[in-house]
What does this fold into?
Amino acid sequence: MKKLKSLLPFLLMLFALVGCKTDDLEKDIDSLKDRVTSLEAQVSLLNDNLNAIRVILDGSKTISSYTSENGTYTLTLSDGSTITLTQGSEGQIVMPDITINENGQWVLNGEVIGQATGNSGITPKFNISADKYWQVSFDEGKTYEYVLDENGEKVAATTSGNVSVSDAFFEDVKVENDMLVVTLNGGETYSLPIVANLKANIVDPAEGFKNGVWTIGYGETVTTEVEISGDNYFVTVPAGGWTATLSEVKEGKATLTVTAPAQASTLSRATADNSTELVLQVNKGINWAIDKIKVEAKTVIASYKALYDVGQTLNIGGLEISKEKYGEATIVNTEDFDFKTNGVYFIEPGISVNWQSATNFDKLILIGNNSSEKSVLAPTKQIKLSDADSGDGMLLCANLKIDATKVTNNDGGSTYLLAQNGNTAYKYAKFYNCDITTPASQPLTYISTSTRSFETLSFENCIFDYSGTGQQYLISLGSSTATYGTLIFKNNVFYNKEASSLIPKFKLFNGTKATINKLELEHNTFVNMACETTFFVYVSKLTDIVAQYNLFYTDVDLPNACGVFRVIDTPATGSVCDNNIVYRNDAYNWQMFYGGIKNGFEGAVEVERVEENPFTGGTFDLSIGTFVPNATYAEYGAKFE
It folds into this structure.
């Protein structure tokens, strides 16, 4: 007991010291939080200022009203939106050197990074990484890349100590003669009129408006509200058959009525660009306010079955589907519909259909019934095929969202979606205009029996949504020695939905003992899909290759060399291999053929590495699988309406 008492003063002192250390630690944490908050505020200020100068440069809006407090201007624009700009403050960030040159382009650290003015103008958005380096985004913050200096080194965002540096973006901001006048640090001066009661605003339409585009069916008439204040107003429509009218303005509001050009209907996902801008203009005196909305004419069909029933032939990816050829069709409007027999099925949108059929289908045609919304097929059992009796099999899946993640085998474990159960080559199978999700580490189809294959297997205008970092094969054969006739991959997107994450073991075709007579690989986009050293197509024999305008992209380091074709037994032969590009392959090379272009065929051209991010100034959206290259690389990769 005496020993315990003698320890008490020491323990009390120790607890006191620990208390002091804890207080100091809490202060350090609070200080760190304050510093991080300050950095975030300064980065936000920079992005607000860049947005403000972009609006001023655009010149299509005026300022309806403004307030100013402590060097920050809050501007209400003629379309009703609000922006802020701040002349400057003191902080701990070292501003990136960003200016606008005489051609209206953003210049970052001496390098042109994009257009600042005009219809193609973008607004870069900055961020500070966890390791305190500058990052920049060209897609409104969906993805970021490091800012590099002239030596290719990352640019630090903070000073080494507590030195305060100016984060001022503007040299001067003032209101003069009903104009907001701003002067950049480089000396360039820009202005924007301040005009009360001048407004032009097209309210986002309630229907058909998505990702900044108003989609209207060919020949259809639709409306939305506009807000107008001024002396005169009018609307300008695109060429090519568009019309638009404005109703009388009452209490600052009017109805905009738009009619799209007429065009014949077809079930298609064409790649033609038939979208452009509709412009609302309002003036007050010499000043004009302008608002724009991008419009798109497109086939919008409420019921493909109705067209089918009256005898119209549907053209689906080059296939003609008609009542005369395939007989009466069935509408699917319940989740647990029982698919028992061959035939044509039109699946209604708004439900998730659970495929549970045990039938081996010789003729199976599944079509989403509404062109403006894909129907959902969520199988819990495999889709089984066999044309052993007829030798003339047909599978078509079109306009569907196929969720194959719930497909199970008899033991309850996950398994592949498509089963070929005949003992011959199934005649024809096609997936067209489908969004497809498969379970982790499961192929879409697995065929190990050497007597089973496809004469034609086609994937066109589809989006394949993968996630994670595991093995993902599309077609897997095991040790099969089967011969496949024609495999077609045209205008598809294959992507890893997880940001800055890589699928390291991906294959379109894995059959090291199999033969492919012809493989067409055209206008596909691959985002963060890698294949290590076995390549996307791993096959014993491949006798005819068409490979062109494919785009390969990664924003993370590759684990090994990657490429497209690895042919084991004999050299590959083909007719076209050209105009394929890859972005960011880092230390490892992408190759069209394993071992280099020397293992290709005469006239084949190696995949080209590009230094510029092909999506800078385009669209890169992992959340919806939309990847549109900029104008420089517009001919590469998949293109959808």
User: Anything to note?
Assistant: Residues 2-58 form the longest helix (57 residues). DSSP finds three helices and 53 strands in the chain. The two ends are 85 Å apart (CA to CA).
